[in-house]
Specification:
The complex is a heterodimer of chains A (227) and B (454). Chain A is built from eight helices and twelve strands. Chain A has 227 residues and is an alpha/beta fold. Chain A has two domains: 120 residues, Response regulator (Rossmann fold), CATH 3.40.50; 97 residues, Winged helix-like DNA-binding domain superfamily/Winged helix DNA-binding domain (Arc Repressor Mutant, subunit A). In chain A, strands 2-1-3-4-5 form a five-stranded parallel sheet, sandwiched between helices. In chain A, strand 3, helix 3 and strand 4 form a beta-alpha-beta unit. The longest helix of chain A has 19 residues. Chain A is elongated. The two termini of chain A are 25 Å apart. Chain B has 454 residues and is α+β, with helices and mostly antiparallel strands. In chain B, strands 2-1-5-4-3 form a five-stranded antiparallel sheet. In chain B, strands 7-9-10-12-11 form a five-stranded mixed sheet. Chain B is rod-shaped, with a radius of gyration of 49 Å. Classes of the chains: A alpha/beta (227), B alpha+beta (454). At the A-B interface, helix 4 and helix 8 of A face helix 4, helix 5 and helix 6 of B. Chain A: One of its GO terms (cellular component) is protein-DNA complex.
Chain lengths: 227, 454
């Protein structure tokens, strides 16, 4: 069964852009042009995730997400906004949104984030103590990483980045997602600093010419996949 | 200006008038109370003395008879010390037996209580005001004891007169003090109004003159001057930002236009067009970054996000940012060090991290191979100081004050990485946290410092 997505966005061009992308990616997409219709559709239920514009005619995004949370609806909500400021982001998350993306964005970034939201509940339920990818194993209790049985020494930060990848296996992870998820930074560094961190991690885990585990996805970010 | 002055003058007149009316009414009230109380006290005193004397004389009559009473009255009437004391004894028919009054008042029945009347004194030629009481004795004789009230009336008049004078003096004095006091305040207010008027008509550099007295008005003027300083600076920045923005966006936009033109040209090979498209996208991303930086700066300048302030431990925050940049520094062969004491302050964690990251990126851009970038936490007066120093080439001395203005870069080449907004954002974040940004040259090197309020 295909996954159902609701898009609440008043700007027709942005709406068409998102709809096209997700339809091609195999989602069943429904749309609403204003807050009231969005609320109406949402309370009908059945959506796996909602993409919600922050500024909407009728009922704005913040109020909308607040009211559905008050009504006990836990559908993951990603909020889109033209306001990049950190405090705006915090306000969105406090109102009950699960993620926040600033316009303009690349479609890959949006898709990566939606995929992350859709998988989210499983993260909490599987309480495993080891994470694996191919021949790499991470022991979360003893904080040990081995590759093909050989132990790898990592800095605490490298360990954290690797864990972030292992928990989101087979999904694209953008640089912004890494910045937010690993460092909790919500600004855009001018340098290619995230890439430098990743190449350091790569050197550590692919040491000795092993298969590269982390691949670069052009224009989108990185991915760690099982095959 | 004329419009601004008229209401001031009215306000002053009203204030003086109010003070005069208030103090005059108060003085009049006090005087009235004194007057009434004094009158009452004197009257009741007289009454009790007269009543006692009347009872004493009646006693004398009982003991010594009419003759003895007559003698007692004669004795008392002659007493020089009691000039105001008045006595009259008549037989039942009203004929005078003794006393210093000429005759019994016709309309007074003995025993009718306290009366006021006018009577001729014995040997006098005019009637005098008298307060008196009388009784009829057992043998039918009439006895009247009283006091000459003319002295009292004189005292009364004197009292009223001096009260009037006091009232006049109060009026004059309050008029004078009111006028002086308001002149003190209102001359300063007019100065402020004049300065404000000049500023309205376009001269932003005007300031309110200080008296140097250090009083409340001086301090207010000082605060207003600080405000004007800040406004002038902000307006200046705004002007410059607008100019630079117009200038700065022209070149990337025109490059973008060329790229789009190249894209629409059908005779170009596909590979070339793809490369053009990628470059166009990079150009757009740069423009978007400039815009979001500008938004961040203006939001920080406006103090938005202050409601999200929380206690921040500066040392762990700095350590995280340093660790974040460590790999880049390593690649460049530059060492990063952190020293100093930890400080706790109310702040916005995300913005403080961003500010430090901007300072580090700036230092990394100029730090030579093999050198060290030092991050120090310390104090600057009652503020926390966060200092980043490198041993790079520094900046020309005359460029130092301009560094934190938007769109200021040292080499005129603004690149994707160096939009000239980084330090402007640092300065805005410092100000938002009640501090400031300063930069100076070291020998050799460069030091940027942001202070933060605790």
């Amino acid at each position: 069964m295909s996954r159902r997505l609701l898009i609440v966005e008043d700007d027709p061009e942005t709406r068409a852009f998102i709809v096209k992308g997700f339809s091609e990616a195999g989602f069943a997409v429904e749309t609403a042009e204003n807050g009231r219709d969005g609320l109406y559709l949402m309370t009908d239920g059945g959506f796996d995730a909602v993409i919600l514009d922050r500024m909407l005619p009728g009922l704005d995004g913040l109020k909308l997400v607040r009211s559905i949370r008050a009504a006990g609806l836990s559908t993951p909500v990603l909020m889109l906004t033209a306001m990049s400021a950190v405090d705006e982001r915090v306000k969105g998350l406090r109102a009950g949104a699960d993620d926040y993306l600033v316009k303009p964005f690349s479609f890959q970034e949006l898709q990566a984030r939606i995929e992350a939201l859709l998988r989210r509940p499983q993260d909490g339920t599987e309480e495993t103590s080891t994470l694996t990818c191919r021949d790499l194993e991470m022991d979360l209790l003893r904080r040990r990483v081995t590759r093909a049985g050989r132990e790898i020494t990592l800095t605490p930060r490298e360990f954290q980045i690797l864990e972030f990848f292992l928990r989101r296996k087979n999904r694209v992870i953008s640089r912004t997602m890494l910045l937010e998820g690993v460092w909790d930074y919500h600004f855009d560094p001018n340098t290619n600093i995230v890439d430098v961190h990743i190449s350091k991690l790569r050197r550590a885990i692919d040491d000795g010419g092993a298969d590269p585990l982390i691949e670069t996805v052009r224009g989108a970010g990185y991915m760690m996949s099982d095959d | 200006m004329t419009r601004a002055r008229a209401p001031l003058r009215n306000a002053r007149t009203r204030l003086v008038l109010a003070s005069v009316v208030l103090s005059t009414v108060m003085t009049a009230l006090v005087l009235a109370v004194v007057y009434v109380t004094a009158n009452r006290t004197i009257a009741s005193e007289t009454r009790s003395v007269v009543t006692a004397e009347l009872a004493g004389l009646a006693d004398e009559y009982e003991r010594l008879g009419t003759l003895g009473l007559m003698r007692a009255i004669e004795r008392r009437s002659q007493d020089a010390a009691e000039r105001d004391a008045l006595y009259l004894l008549t037989d039942p028919a009203g004929r005078v037996l003794a006393g210093n009054l000429l005759r019994w008042p016709p309309d007074i029945e003995p025993g009718s209580g306290w009366v006021r009347l006018e009577l001729m004194r014995a040997g006098g030629d005019t009637a005098v005001p008298i307060s008196a009481a009388s009784i009829r004795l057992r043998g039918g004789e009439r006895l009247l004891v009283g006091r000459d009230a003319s002295a009292r009336q004189q005292f009364d008049r004197a009292l009223l007169q001096s009260a009037g004078l006091a009232l006049l003096a109060t009026l004059a004095l309050s008029l004078l003090t009111g006028w002086l006091l308001t002149r003190l305040v209102f001359s300063r207010l007019s100065e402020i109004a004049r300065t404000a008027g000049d500023i309205v008509s376009g001269d932003l550099s005007r300031r309110i003159p200080l008296r140097g007295t250090g009083d409340e008005l001086d301090r207010m003027a000082e605060t207003l001057n600080e405000m004007l300083e800040r406004i002038e600076e902000l307006v200046g920045n705004l002007r410059m930002t607008t100019n630079s923005l117009a200038h700065d966006l022209r070149s990337p936009l025109s490059r973008l236009r060329q790229r789009v033109e190249a894209l629409t040209a059908t005779d170009r090979p596909e590979s070339e067009r793809a490369a053009e498209a990628a470059r166009a996208q990079a150009e757009i991303d740069h423009l978007l970054r400039v815009f979001s930086r500008l938004t961040e700066i203006s939001r920080a300048e406006a103090g938005l996000g202050r409601d999200l302030f929380e206690p921040v431990e500066l040392e762990p925050l700095a350590r995280d940012v340093l660790e974040f940049y460590e790999p880049v520094a390593q690649e460049q062969g530059v060492a990063l060090t952190l020293s100093g004491e930890d400080a706790r302050l109310p702040g916005n964690k995300a913005l403080l991290a961003q500010a430090l990251s901007n300072l580090l990126e700036n230092a990394l851009r100029y730090a030579p191979d093999g050198s060290t970038i030092r991050v120090t936490l310390g104090r600057a007066g009652d503020r926390v100081a966060l200092t980043v120093s490198d041993s790079g080439p520094g900046v020309p001395e005359e460029a130092l004050p301009r560094l934190s203005r938007p769109f200021v870069t040292l080499d005129d080449s603004r690149t994707e990485q160096n939009s000239g907004l980084g330090l402007a954002l640092v300065a805005a974040i410092a100000r938002m946290h009640g501090g400031s940004f300063t930069a100076r040259n070291l020998d050799p090197g460069f030091e940027a410092q942001m202070t933060l309020g605790r």
